[in-house]
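Supplementary material to the annual report.
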Amino acid sequence: MVDSIWRLGYASRFFLLTLLKSGTSFRRFDLIIRELYFTGVLSLIIIIVSGLFVGMVLGLQGYETLQRFGAESAVGTMVALSLVRELGPVVAALLFASRAGSAITAEIGLMKATDQLAAMEMMAVDPIARVVAPRFWAGVISMPFLAALFSVVGVFGGYLIAVVLIGVDEGSFWSQMQNAIDFRYDIVNGIIKTCVFGVAVTAIAVFEGYDASPTAEGVSGATTRTVVTSSLVILGLDFVLTSVMFRGMS
Amino acid sequence: MTSETLVEIKGLNFSYGQRSILKGIDMTMLRGKVIAIMGGSGSGKTTLLRLIGGAIRPSSGYVKIAGKIVHELKRDELFKMRRKMSMLFQFGALFTDLSVFDNVAFQMREHTDLSEPMIRDLVLMKLQTVGLRGAHDLMPAQLSGGMARRVALARSIALDPILIMYDEPFTGLDPISLTVIGNLIRRLTDALGMTSIVVTHDVQESLKIVDYIYFVSEGVIAAHGTPAEVRGSVAPFVHQFVHGEEDGPVPFHYPAEPYASDLKLGAGFA
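Predicted assembly:
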């Protein structure tokens, strides 16, 4: 218990240091751009493919349920609301933690195990400013775009199933979706969620990498902890954010 | 402290918790010299390097570099001092995501305002010194162990330091690479007028290139002297270490209960 509290305090201090030492990353934005490629661009495939399948499944299940009540034209609304409010941010963040978070942890952990971080310190270059902060901000910037793309592709997947395959009226599909989605409550809240998840996942990933024992076993353990902790934190935060954001909505 | 002294270590103690690693170390290292620190595994050699580099703080005593006590420096002052010193890690510690060229250019880009054409010329000159100008486009994964260490050496002299520390620079090298690295350490020290501190096990290679040797055993300096003095030493520890004898002051057996009692044999076998 004492160890857990001590570790939480250490992680919080590390997070604050990362924020304080972020100046270099923004002065030399090319450092962030390089990391955007690794965390963002290389995550595109898994996000797009998963988004498409999640949207198609939502289309199928939505139609199956709604047609019992003669409300199959509302399938577009159901697909879009599910994606924009919940599944887009949450599933994209879970995928991001597995794909990019684990890669960040492994990379920083291996840099530590092979003395690269110590070498940087000895060259009078702060590893938190040079290695940790660019990766943190790249993750924070990537996450909302990846989640937005997930939702867009998911809606397209729902459209393919409901309209193209099953034959739901295209006009109803899009117009009901347009009427039901509120920019402030649905889109903005979804974006806020993705930003929070982005900060949480990337902060956990960089901390676990930096704190990893400098051995093969240590790096593998840290990578696993990143995925497990991030996933639990995403689900916990989602519940809290949902209950705050959508409380009292009709 | 004489005007020639670059590194002065006085009464240096260091412990990990209750475990004492270094006990009352005194050393003097002169400018322009190659100094070897030798000793068995776990004798505290690398800890000593980390103390000199300011990575850890001593329990008592001090390390003074160019007149400044290292552990009393604030972080920005320490970083300022580290720009004048370098460290070569055991396996090079090259940045694996950067090419050979970018590894050598790393400090120049971080700490200077030199233009890219100027950096290019300087990097190629440093790589020429270690014989790897033609390898500037390669990635660290494409280098052999010896080449990686030569690139790391080029990187460590990027800003013409006054002090370079080498942590086991000969480990795992073939005889040719070993001679190349040994000669480079000597040549660069002489050419740049810097001080080199080499932590190593390799007695024969070290005796060829160093000016002075300290033997560290169980956290204290067991012996010290010039290569000629070391070769002629009759001190038991030095003799065992230099000639690689299996048993001596450094015992073959880890401390244990008497063998017979451990095997639960009767008194007649004792």
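Chain B touches chain A at residues 53, 55, 79-80, 82-83, 85-87, 89-91, 93-96, 106-107, 110-111 (CB under 8 Å).
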